[in-house]
Each structure stands twice: as C-alpha cells, then as structure tokens.
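re: the backbone from monday

yeah here it is again, tokenized this time
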C-alpha cells in the first residue's frame, strides 16, 4: 500500500462527504458562515486518523467516515470559538467568521456545528460508548482551552501544567478519533487502549514540535514567520522550560520582561533564540519530542498486523520529519 496515496484517497472521500452534509442554506445568516468555514478545513487529519484507527483495529475504514466527519466538525467548532476568544482576524488566510460577519453569528455558527456533529454520528452496536467518548473529548478540549487562557495571566506555569494543558487541548481530540475508530471496528479494550495511547503521545509530540518549529523552522517550509509565539506572549514549552532553568541575570530579566508584557516585539526573537541555545532548550525539546514519538510507536506493537497499522506508523514518521 502506498500510504501517501491512500491518505489522499481518504481526504477526497472526506471532502466529498463534508460537501454532502454541509449544503444547508436556511437561515442564511447561520448556514452561510457554517458552509464558509467547513469548506476550507485544512488537512483533515482527524477524520483520516479515525478511519486509519478503525482499519488498524481490524475494521473497514469507510465505516468510520461519518464519525470522523463529526470529529472534524467538532474540531472546527472549537476553532470558530477560539478565534473569537483570541480576537483573530484570519484563519487559513481568510477572514475569521466573527470578522466576516460578527461575534453573535460566530457563536451561533459554532453552536450549530457541535449540534450537527452529534447528529452525524451513526447508529452502531457500540453507539453509547461512541457518544460518551465524543462527549468526553469535547469536554476535555474545552478544559484545555481554559487552562491555556489561564496561562496568559499566570507568572508561574510549570512544565507539568503545560503538558496537562496540551494533553487536553491537543491530544484529547486525537485520542477521541482513535478510540472511536476502534469502537467502530468493535475492537477489544487492549486494542482501543493502545490506539488511545498512540494518539496521546502523538499529540504531545506534535504540540511541542510546533513550539520548536516556531523558533527554528525554515520559514519557506513552515509557511509562516518564526518567532510569532514570542510576539504573542505564549507560554510555550520552550519559554516555560527556560523560565525554570534561567540563572543568569540577562536571561531572568528577558523572561521577566516577556511575562510582564505578555509578549515582546520581533526584535527580541534573536535574543530568545540565543537564550534557548545557551540553556539547552532546543536540545531538550527535541529529546522530548523523540521520546513521545517513540512511545507512540511502541503502542502500535499491540495492534494486529495490517496495512493500516503500518499507515499509523507512516503518519508518525511523516509528522516527526517536519523540517526543523
């Protein structure tokens, strides 16, 4: 199996199904922004992951399609509301819903999305478990967002706090995808547990990798300017670890200024880069990323041998090889 080709096939199936379930038009002020946002959904990693997990657990991937679409709609619901909270003007190079329309419309659009996500989950012999898993994933994502918001005003965020936050904000939805994929395949608890842990470690690695790429990526490959997290005042893995390790006055002063100002201008990015190198932050982040990717790979050993298990390994390698 050519995994790149198969992934593209999944994406085409997913896009076609999304078009089928989002073509609703009345009332216009609700469904125009709904269709607008769902039409440009990014890489569709979550529904594809749901289908891959179903296949890896011994099921037919297409049977998990609508559950995967429901999870993609849930993901987009969180983005619509996140954009309001973050006061973001653009998402995927287009105006956000609350900027193109208004905040009230954006809130209602997000509300409708989560309703349609639930409506899309098909009947299944393990329907109750699927609904419970879906609901728990939604709650965890909301909890993670609150923790992230609390970090904005906290002067004492620790690495364990950060890992807890990304475990909920990033990993939880990926875990939900994999668990639901396993449930659709009617897998046993051992296989579902392995899929869940695979997704957990994948999410942790991915988020720390994102933090690292923001500082050291090739801008042409990464697709955006480096150092934006510094300018936005984010409490990333790099910043929190530096704050725990800093001893030199110039490092402490820089971090205090950053925390007190909730971010610093682009001219400070080279100084952060120098500090991160001096404190070994980049090396530690790379070590942690590799550790989490290895833990995710280890979980795959518990799954039956098939092409979709190997496809999950391919996905790990693909994400792990994002350019630094």
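seq for it, each position gets an aa:
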């Amino acid at each position: 199996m050519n995994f790149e080709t198969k992934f593209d096939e999944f994406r085409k199936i997913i896009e076609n199904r999304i078009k089928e379930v989002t073509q609703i038009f009345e009332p216009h002020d609700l469904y125009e922004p709904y269709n607008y946002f769902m039409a440009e959904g990014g890489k569709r990693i979550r529904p594809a992951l749901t289908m891959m997990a179903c296949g890896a657990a011994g099921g037919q991937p297409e049977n998990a399609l609508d559950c995967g679409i429901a999870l993609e709609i849930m993901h987009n619901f969180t983005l619509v509301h996140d954009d309001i909270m973050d006061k973001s003007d653009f998402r995927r190079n287009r105006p956000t819903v609350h900027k193109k329309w208004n905040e009230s419309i954006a809130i209602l659009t997000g509300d409708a999305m989560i309703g349609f996500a639930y409506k899309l989950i098909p009947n299944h012999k393990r329907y109750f478990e699927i609904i419970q898993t879906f609901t728990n994933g939604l709650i965890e994502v909301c909890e993670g967002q609150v923790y992230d918001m609390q970090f904005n005003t906290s002067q004492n965020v620790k690495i364990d706090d950060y890992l807890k936050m990304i475990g909920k904000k990033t990993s939880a939805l990926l875990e939900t995808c994999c668990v639901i994929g396993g449930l659709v395949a009617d897998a046993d608890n051992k296989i579902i547990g392995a899929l869940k842990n695979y997704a957990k470690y994948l999410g942790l690695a991915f988020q720390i990798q994102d933090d690292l790429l923001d500082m050291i990526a090739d801008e042409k490959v990464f697709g955006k300017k480096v150092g934006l997290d510094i300018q936005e005042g984010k409490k990333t893995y790099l910043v929190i670890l530096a704050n725990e390790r800093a001893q030199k006055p110039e490092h402490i002063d820089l971090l205090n200024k950053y925390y007190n100002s909730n971010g610093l201008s682009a001219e400070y990015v080279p100084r952060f880069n120098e500090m991160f190198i001096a404190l070994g932050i980049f090396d530690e982040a790379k070590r942690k990323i590799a550790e989490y990717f290895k833990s995710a790979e280890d979980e795959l050993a518990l799954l039956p041998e098939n092409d979709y298990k190997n496809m999950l390994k391919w996905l790990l390698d693909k994400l792990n090889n994002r350019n630094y």
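The mean pLDDT is 94. The CA atoms of residues 3 and 314 lie 7 Å apart.
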